[in-house]
Write a structure and sequence with these properties.
By secondary structure, the protein is α+β, with helices and mostly antiparallel strands. The chain folds into 4 domains: 163 residues, PAS domain (Beta-Lactamase); 104 residues, Beta-Lactamase, CATH 3.30.450.20; 179 residues, GAF domain (Beta-Lactamase); 221 residues, PPM-type phosphatase domain (Phosphatase 2c, domain 1, 4-Layer Sandwich). Helix content is 38%, strand content 27%. The chain is built from 21 helices and 27 strands. Strands 3-2-1-6-5-4 form a 6-stranded antiparallel beta sheet. Strands 18, 19, 20, 21, 24 and 25 form a 6-stranded mixed beta sheet that branches. Strand 20 and strand 21 form a beta hairpin. Helix 11 packs antiparallel against helix 12 and helix 18 packs across helix 19.
């Protein structure tokens, strides 16, 4: 042994404390039958070391399953090491080994400190040995411990005592669970001789300052026959207190009956004292950090609020997001009140941190809404200021004021039942006036609002007010656009000869207005014009141009006479160019003429539009794509025309690309999905439109669908 190793060993034995080396990690416990050299009991931690071991198991076999090695890497089953000594009834007062440990990063070695004692004097455990594996926090600690243990027998004994590692065995079959065996380290740690403690429950070590919860944890583990590790304040014989880390494991006999509890105890007073000193130092740092953290939390909330609220232009969704941001950060429950032009309550949004209480909250809000006194709500509740904190809202002196807010005071107790002791009332200002009011409430179990909370709420309300104003402006614009869109779409004529239905679904992500349209024209010669088109764009301008295009199409179709559908598209293209309509559009136009066999003849042309789909009476679906040509608005030119016979009972489906196109996907995949949906759809055109929209209708683009059954 080198001089350096001896110095390390001496330093360890003079100040070694096991808890500082092993930390709070649980111990693995084995009970070994020395006569058969078999492991007859393992606690759950030991089961994890040697997965798959079926008890009883030979000691060397258990060692191999745990892949135990010495610090040089040799397998223990092939060395004269701790488990071999245990099998010869030789005490192991402390040696270092390592076990395999699997992880996502591969196989690693876990250093362990082994202590083993024959149980020669323990009732019912004669001929057995107790083996304990304690995980070491650092490999260098394991080597230092090994150096100390190898120094000499006297040095090993001193090391064991210095660790404060005590072993006890208690009789589990006695109702009081008395001690039946203790090792010398227990006597050295507690000051009690073995004859003073045997036959007594370990509770004699407890005293006036022992935590009742720690006592209860030990009691629950005993009653449940489970492993437990608890740090508890105990008292020595001389009355001095020490912190005792107790690891307790139940031991069962061959028939599965609980026979003993094994306790492993370590004096961790120095560690607890060090932790307390560390905690005092950290507390000073924590207080210095609190202000910065609060400022950061406030900034984070405002940044998150801006991101969340600007992520939607739907007013109701913005209101819901605002309440979700506030609960539970600034309130246990919150109400956002929106007033109308006369100052009355127009809308409300409410949220409780307990989802089960939200319906009660909404009912209370509705009751208050119906009984609020006439007049502006915001000035009524806020008084002269734009923000108000009532941190003692449950004080009876506020009751008289609250009664002035409502015509029916009976609604007030319902709100009290939701829990409210602290309230913030904050105006949410818009660009021109205050239309919203935030009511933020904390119940008796939460800390009351502070001035800092009020400042955060006011800052957040300023941001939310502008965003809500933007959402309301968008909603107003959307309603105008939606009205315009529907005014431009036709009502299908009622025809005796065919059945028809159409649908228009606006994009959920845009202005909900665009250039998609459909047409069913009852032509003067008895034929029917069928059209579907899409003007480039998704805004009011696209909708206006769509209106122009529809007018040009109807005029060209009406005046075409017996001309081809290609002539109609060519005429529309010429009119667009001549009238200076600088836009592009896709358009599919077909004319249905009665046939002699009771069916119909479809003549059709397409200006860059997805093809008509036809389902014949047998259910077969085909795409009519024989007359494809350039978009309208590119260059006036002659257009191709194709014909197809439609048997009675056939279904013709026209649609815009929003139904079949998906970003990053070839158009053919969408057409295949639509063909499958058409094949499975009902014969009724109304039902068919709903069916294909339900099967394929996304929210990425406008969609127009027209179904005609002949």
């Amino acid at each position: 042994m080198t001089v350096e190793q001896r110095a390390r060993a001496g330093a360890l034995t003079s100040s070694l404390e096991l808890a500082l080396v092993t930390g709070d990690a649980p111990a693995a416990v084995l009970l070994v039958d020395l006569r058969s050299r078999r492991v007859v009991y393992t606690n759950p931690v030991a089961d994890q070391l040697a997965p798959g071991a079926r008890l009883p198991v030979a000691l060397d076999a258990w060692s191999d399953l745990a892949d135990l090695r010495d610090l040089d890497g040799a397998e223990l089953s092939e060395t004269d090491h701790p488990l071999s000594k245990v099998a010869r009834s030789v005490p192991v007062v402390g040696e270092a080994v390592s076990a395999a440990r699997g992880s996502a990063m591969g196989r690693q070695r876990l250093p362990l400190w082994v202590v083993a004692l024959p149980m020669a004097d323990a009732p019912m455990l004669e001929g057995h040995a107790l083996v304990v594996f304690l995980p070491l926090s650092r490999r260098e600690a394991a080597q230092a411990a090994l150096d100390a243990a190898q120094a000499s027998a006297q040095l090993r004994d001193r090391a064991v005592v210095a660790t404060g590692l005590s072993f006890t065995v208690a009789d589990a079959q006695d109702e009081d669970v008395p001690l039946v065996w203790v090792n010398p380290a227990f006597e050295a740690t507690t000051g009690y001789a073995a004859e003073e403690v045997l036959g007594r429950n370990c509770r004699f070590l407890q005293g006036p300052a022992t935590d009742p919860q720690a006592r209860a944890a030990l009691r629950r583990a005993i009653e449940a026959e489970e492993d437990a590790t608890v740090t508890i304040l105990n008292y020595r014989k001389d009355g001095t207190a020490f912190w005792n880390q107790v690891s307790m494991s139940p031991i069962h006999g061959p028939d599965g009956e609980l026979t003993h509890f094994v306790g492993i105890q370590a004096d961790v007073t120095a560690r607890v004292a060090a932790d307390a000193e560390r905690d005092r130092a950290l507390e000073a740092e924590r207080r210095a950090r609190v202000a910065a953290e609060r400022a950061q939390q406030r900034l984070d909330l405002l940044v998150e609020a801006t991101s969340e609220l600007t992520g939607s232009l739907d007013v109701d969704e913005c209101r819901r997001r605002l309440t979700r941001l506030l609960v539970p950060r600034l309130a246990d429950w919150a109400v956002l009140v929106t007033t109308d032009d006369r100052g009355g309550v127009a809308e409300t949004a409410a949220l409780h941190r307990d989802p089960g209480r939200t319906p009660d909250l909404e009912r209370w809000v509705e009751g208050v809404r119906e009984t609020l006194v006439p007049g502006p709500v915001v000035p009524l509740l806020l008084g002269e200021a734009h923000a108000r904190r009532i941190s003692d809202f449950d004080d009876p002196r506020h009751l008289d004021e609250r009664r002035t807010w409502v015509r029916d005071p009976d609604v007030l107790p319902t709100g009290d039942g939701l829990g409210r002791s602290s309230v913030l009332l904050v105006a949410v200002p818009g660009r021109e006036r205050i239309t919203d009011l935030l009511v933020l409430v904390r119940g008796p179990e939460s800390p009351r609002h502070t001035d800092e909370d009020l400042e955060v709420a006011v800052d957040l309300a300023r941001r939310a007010g502008i965003i809500l104003d933007n959402a309301r402006l968008f909603r107003a614009q959307h309603r105008i656009a939606e009205t315009l869109q529907h005014s431009l779409l036709p009502e299908l004529p009622v025809l005796d000869r065919v059945a028809a239905a159409a649908r228009y679904r606006a994009s959920e992500t845009g202005a909900q207005v665009g250039g998609d349209f459909y047409e069913l024209i009852d032509l003067p010669d008895g034929s029917l014009g069928v059209a579907i088109g899409d003007v480039v764009g998704h805004d009011v301008l696209a909708a206006a141009r769509m209106g122009h295009l529809r007018g040009l199409l109807r005029a060209a179709a009406w005046g075409a006479g017996t001309g081809s559908t290609g002539d109609v598209l060519e005429r529309v293209d010429q009119l667009m160019s001549g009238l200076g309509l600088t836009t592009m559009a896709t358009l599919a136009y077909g004319r249905l003429d009665p046939a002699d066999d009771g069916g119909w003849t479809l003549t059709y042309s397409s200006a860059g539009h997805p093809p008509f789909l036809l389902r014949d009476p047998s259910g077969r679906v085909e795409a009519l794509d024989d007359a494809q040509d350039l978009l309208l608005g590119v260059q006036p030119r002659s257009r191709r025309t194709a014909r197809h016979h439609l048997a009675p009972g056939s279904l013709l489906l026209a649609y815009t690309d929003g139904l079949v196109e998906r970003r990053g996907e070839h158009l053919e995949r969408g057409l295949e999905r639509l063909a499958a949906a058409l094949a499975e759809g009902p014969d009724d055109p109304d039902g068919l439109c709903d069916h294909v929209l339900g099967a394929l209708g996304g929210d990425g683009d406008d969609i127009a669908v027209l179904a005609v059954r002949v």
